User: Fold these one by one.
Assistant:
Number 1:
Amino acid sequence: MLRFFTFRLLRAAVTLTMVVTFAFLVLIASGDPADIIMGSDAPPEAIEAFRQAWGLDRPIWVQYLSYFSAVLSGDLGRSMRDGRDAIVLVTERIPATLALTLPALALKLVIGIPAGIYAALHRNSLADRMVMVLAVAGFTIPSFVLGLLLVLVFAVQLGWLPSGGQESWRHAILPVITLGIGGAAVLARFTRSAMLEVLGQPYIRTASAKGVAWRDVVSRHALPNAAIPTVTIIGFMVGSLLAGAVVVESVFSWPGVGRLLVTAVANRDLAVVQCILLLVAATMITANLVVDLLYGLLDPRLRGARSH
Amino acid sequence: MSALLEAQGLVRRYSMRSGLFGASVDLRAVDGVSLTLEPGRTLGLVGESGCGKSTTGRLVLGMERPDAGAVRVEGRPMPAPGSAEWRRLRARMQMVFQDPLGALDRRLTIGAQVAEPLEIHGLDTARVPALLAGVGLRPDQAARYPHELSGGQRQRAVIARALATDPALLVCDEPISALDVSIQAQVMNLLQDVQERLGLAMLFISHDLRAVRQVSHRVAVMYLGRIVEEGEPDAVFAAPAHPYTQALVSAIPRRGRAGGRIVLKGDPPNPAARPSGCAFHPRCAHAIARRRAEAPVLAPRATDGRAVACHLADTMLAEAA
Amino acid sequence: MPEAPLPAVTIAPPRIARPRPPVLVMCGLIWLALMLAMAVLGDLISPFPYTQMDLRNRLSPPVGFGGAWLHPLGTDELGRDVLSRLISSIRTSLVIAFGATVVGAVLGTTLGFLAAHFRGIVEQAVMALVDFSASIPFLILALAVLAFLGNSMGLFVLLLGLHAWERYARIARGLALSASAQGYAGAVRQLGASPWRVYGRHILPNIASTLIVSMTLAFPEVILLESGLSFLGLGVQPPDTSLGNMVGYGREYLTRAPWILLAPAVVIVLTTLSVSLIGDWLRDRLDPTLR
């Protein structure tokens, strides 16, 4: 178990290093930020001063090492637009984002998992078909379309709810529903197939053939085993709590991390983009790590197992 | 007669690791095997599953590199797997696989697959019908796909493909064990016929003693990665010298057998935890103290020159006499 | 030795009666055919050039909502014909999605084959890249690249092609390894075949159906990504127009002229739905091992 844990930790570290390296490589490939920020018609002395101020005149490997150590020490640079620390700019947006994504996650779990289990237990029934059609629809309707449709109906036509902004909890209702429905569809679909796979296993048939009540077969044998793959997708959802609302925040003018990212990309504010990229990757990697460890607890076979 | 192929002291280890930081355990699949194949002769290689006979076959063909030892083909060292020279050499040495359905590409017709070695080595593909006829397949079966043929027919197709480039050596790795019993004899006859007709050398790997006896000019018995006995098949099977061979031979069902069957004690061997000394000692009926300490070498027996790797080879012969 | 030809027992290939696809899948196929026809015949059936303005008919509603047949789906704020813009958008979005899917499949399959062929350090590197791709939500990665490298159509297609490459890489590596270890690929290699022949003539045709199913499943995701990025104003740039881009610009007229936004939105939903249904159906039929 300890070995399993160390291995996963090592792997997470490698992945995180790759993300940092990736961010650096794209930064280098993006060309000279001096030209981009100052404009190509700026006087050469000004551009030179800018390059020196940002350390752009040093050899690449020096830049890489200093970049790496800066990232490790939590210094993610300053916004090239307003000069504030990128990390401050980003972290002050996190509560707003979580205010949308946490309730949405709860909504996904509350709708998605029971719907998936119900559909699997009543395979090919009308309810199952309904759940599946809704699940496919939920997956294929992009969040911006769903969000705008909700605005059109509930804000424009009925006038029940505000269409955007962050003034009160009522402003959060439509974005949370938009986020929740799509995720619930994915989760329902996934839970259903995980459940169906488990229900087809010989040990389930054995348990029910030897007279165990169907209720107990489901709750003791099927659910715990179906939980294993489902945990992965939930882990992915938790990992994307910060990043999952990029589009929806833009639709509803919600001042969270996602909207900051979109404006930063449009303005090519590289420090902010990098900061968000690293933060999202770190969240995601941590969530994956936790999922792996949960796997180890849920699935005894994996405890001493090798990576591949 | 000069040797077609000579293998000297082949060793193949696989390392098995338990966990990332776990100690890696060396598994010696093949542990010092030497053998010689002469043109036009068949060497049978027998042993139970996991004894390293299939790995020996792949080493001899050069599909894997040995960790120690060397293979020489017609006096020259075996080129590295995948190199151009190695690929050219494939025309001279071919293989017949255990599972013919797995060894054939299910999306190509039998004809296309038999033609493939000819295309690869730049030979004339007009030979395909003759090759098919040579293994007892009808010309119209060239247009069939593997799943449309029976198991025996598929193995005939694999043999035809192996023979396409007129190889000097054919390695048959358990060629009949995946086939129905009723088909096995047909395929055995075909292999024997082909071997005699084309005069090729054959390494016949099997756990089936009767099959090995039918086709082989010499036979080698493997146990845990080593050859423990080698000699003429009739002599080896009529009067096995190594206790392990004795046990194998006694297990052949036969009519009116007087003696009882020797039942081996203990578990089948685990190559990762090789017993010290003679690897066979935990299961041997004659185990003497020396066997635990010292590994016997394959040496010609004093009386008739048969190669046996057993401390008791000469003693036991004297007792039997 | 008498080796008479075997008796002429031929085993007929198993002919499984192919059931007609379910109604929903049929609808999907028809819709997809319609979309492809629009993309191919775009210039012929488009009533107006998609950038042509008709300033006297700005924000004119579609037929049935008080609009005239001149502009069946209405016009936008500059009087541009929504139907013509829709046809152009369908073409752009489909071309991008198709190009990106092919890029991803080729890239992933190639890397998967390289990993399977060379093993060792190459395989470790590819698998580390797979881990890396799986560890960041693709939208964030795409946004980062767009921020750093700017936007052009070619780059955009390549970038979207990175989506799902790791799935093809996993599939290609796994299937190539199993075909080489004991199966037909190992046998062909032992005949002396070059790696090109082993992978091109044998492994690729054998795993093609699995790859095609994966492509069908990834295609709607690419459409959604493209339209999402374009909606945010970071994908396809004007004067070019794509489905997401139309929704993004139509958003400002949500209250006054919702048709500008609804027409492309409906097309996005129906197209992704169709391809998803077809993909699920193909997967169940051709390759039950994928899930």
Number 2:
Amino acid sequence: MSSFSVTRPQINTLYRSFIRYASEFEDYNFRHYFLRKYKTEFRKLKEENVKITPELWNSYQKELDVLKRQSAISKMYHFDRLVVERLDEKHHK
Amino acid sequence: MFRQSFRQLVRPVATRSLIATPRFTFPALSNVRFLATGSTLTKEDVLARSISVLKTFDIKQNADTITPQTEFIKDLGMDSLDYNDALVALEEEFDVVFDDNTANEIKSVGQTVDYILKNYLPAQELLDKEIR
């Protein structure tokens, strides 16, 4: 049986892709749901030191594809800004 | 008769109040943020904007003391997940994408600033103007 190993940079890259695509959602609720979901999920992986199996790794890759597709689709539609959203996203103060 | 006296009473007050407090005040020009012209994004700009992004994170160090030498993990007390969150936030701020090798190797704020300066593209309309 071939040994399967995932390096730390690979996981970092995967996490970054998740966060990147999640934050591209136009709709506030979806955007924040996915950001929350992957932040807690990866934190759990890190804290519980979960061993990444090939099955887990592949399921994440599939999930990433879904997220990529859905965030692209969300850009085709118009969503009204919610009152809690900043009009100017780049304004931090 | 009533009407006339009423007018006399009201008119001066109305005109006076209109002059004293114009209904529309325009914001002072200094408050309006203009887009930087051309691709002149200076190192100081990038650093200042990066710091204002980093301020939104839970960091150990006072944001005012961040310098290019500050390291994300060592000085700001971030773990690998926070650090990646910060990188993505910086990507959004400057419309750049950190390629995977760089992103995994970057340690200090200065390194991100250098990368952003190297890879930053000015807004599309400015590029169009230059072509014309």
Number 3:
Amino acid sequence: MTYDLQWNILWTGENGRWLLEGIWTTIRLSALSWIFACGLGVLSGALRTAPFRPLRALATCYVEFFRNVPLLVWLFFWYFGAPQVLPRAGQDWLNLHGPEFWSAVVALSVYHGARMSEVIRAGIQSVPKTLFEASVATGLSVGQAYRLILIPIALRLIIPPATNESLNLLKNSSLALTIGVAELTFMTRQVETYTARAFEALTAGTLIYLVLCLTIASVMAQVERALRIPGLIARGVRSES
Amino acid sequence: MLGYFVNSLFQAQQPAECSLLVAEQVRFPPDVPFAPKGFPGAGLLDFVVDGPTKQGYQDIVMITFRQVNKWFGATHVLRDVDLKVRAGEVVVVCGPSGSGKSTLIRCINKLEPIGQGEIIVDGRSLSNPTTDLTALRAEIGMVFQQFNLYPHMTALQNITLAPVKVRKLSREEAERIARKLLAKVGIPEKADHYPAQLSGGQQQRVAIARALAMQPKIMLFDEPTSALDPEMISEVLDVMVELAKEGMTMIVVTHEMGFAKKVAHRIIFMDEGRIVEEGGPEEFFANPKEERTRSFLNKILVH
């Protein structure tokens, strides 16, 4: 018996709309989580190198706590557990705005924030310590030295590992289907259930993830090129006049 | 305008010392080509021939070390250091590697904390918790062996950053000063170059301009020419000579003895964390008192 491929099921009936909605939800979920994860990552990654022990300890606690619990457990925790201890107003807000989606955003943000933090810490630590000394020696405060010197340089250095982490985040957003977020994997499964065409539906899902990830990778590569420091990372382009 | 221009107006002259040096015609070591590359002020050459090589200094104590001790773990890196540096004075610190000379000047802006004793800079004690360290550091320029320019910023941005962020100058004003300083250090055309596009000597001159842009009262130089190719050393030393001439208070860790002879009011020799000997350049080089100093000088001056 040969399997009769019917690609047109992907766009007939509701199916096309479902897949598009799934893509849109995946993008929204990943983008929001990415922004929060980067924020948390930069903050805690910087604190992990700060010249004050209590701040370092605080950031270390955050990282070790959130990266050492499986993402799936975090999803369940933030969806089933955390809302129960929220005050009434918070629960109402969640129920009005889709608790699945926001729980998934929180879970992805804290988990990937902790992982991003390590990437950023490594970046900051690879900037020579003497640059920090030079900046505070001119009268910049420690905060200014971080904001104006260390972090901008570190962010340029960590683009490749940060790209990796961003791709992981997008792919991990598929786990949100377990708490009922109607993202791409969820919708792929739905198409499969309604049409009984597993091969076509899952092939479509696979390819869509691939395209999304390749797009991110190429955007990050362009960012890397745009931000490279003249003469430093672009070897051979020395413009000595 | 720039602090040291004003400073230099108030210098008490010390004619005796100056004339002594002119009589001796102290110059850079003859093997260092003097012609400053692209330096606009040809006046430098004139000054070697006829002008006084040193400004006097004021009787105002700028930096005081009082019985300073410091340890790195079990290593005793500064031992009972007592030192006074006056406004406008140029002090050269030399000594074998590991003698604590870099640590000594890094303590002045508290890049290194000390273990015991007291350091007072411009009337403020570094160990006093109410001393605003950030404000104090803004008054102290520092130049490092490895230049330490911010690699992601152009020369101009390197120089204007602290004046804008710390002194709260407008960007235009800061850039005006920065361009003036770049001209002063002889590389006005490099304003928009990134550090990696500059030679070592050019980078170090940008670093000096960056420190000067804060109009510091004190300049610290931590082996400023040690990482440079020989032909770039003189272009950096020229700028430092010029600065000394303007009456800047300077502490310079260096092995450039030609520079020391020429501009230092006092030379300090350190070994094993101790100040072994100090004195004016003439007596220091002509008849060092300590055996340790003699053997050090023999080693570095033999070639």
